[in-house]
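Request: Mind sharing a record?
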Amino acid sequence: MSGVIELTVGEVTVFDRNFHADVERLWRDIADLVAQYRQEGRAETPLWEESGVLRLESVPGGLVRFTLAFDGGPRRTAVTGEEDLLAALAVGGVEFFEKLGKLTGGFYDQDITKLTGRTASGRTGPSA
């Protein structure tokens, strides 16, 4: 499923309309990134078709640095509130996976758990 995720962190546009991707795969990469960050305080995941990387790094003062970087290409980095960013990624990802579940009849509990840090119990819809 090719498409676009638009993501602005602070004043930095990390993903814009020109960043076409397999949207399901990109959200899964973001879910992995969030889960790893929650466990380790730092996370990195390679981008599948490009020689690039997504990275989350803790910054003192309750902040987080979000980076999208390509070898020999563009680099976009933004620093913002840690909880605000994690919450925004969770909301966007859960919304995506729930909608995808309704459209395909699939179950995306594992991805939702990675984004939210909690199980799908008590949820309704196809991902519950």
